[in-house]
Design a protein that fits this description.
Layout lengths: L9 E4 L2 E10 L6 H8 L3 E5 L4 E7 L9
Antiparallel strand pairs: 1-2, 2-4, 3-4
């Protein structure tokens, strides 16, 4: 399932915040690399509990620079 571009769900994984771009069943995916590139994701997580890969983009913290 690929999520809508305007409403990506957010998920906290290992103390970092991610936008979840898509979730696909593990048994349907042979190689995650081409899908990750197609979706423009920087991370893929295997969730054995529900049998899915989740394709994500990490949300970077904003830093404020002062002069």
């Amino acid at each position: 399932m690929r999520y809508s571009g305007l409403k990506y769900p957010l998920q906290k994984i290992q103390d970092d915040l991610y936008e979840v771009i898509a979730e696909y069943p593990i048994q349907r995916i042979k190689d995650t690399h081409p899908i990750r590139e197609w979706l423009e994701c920087d991370s893929v997580f295997k969730v054995n509990k529900n049998g899915n890969y989740i394709f994500c983009r990490k949300i970077e913290e904003a830093s404020l620079e002062t002069e």
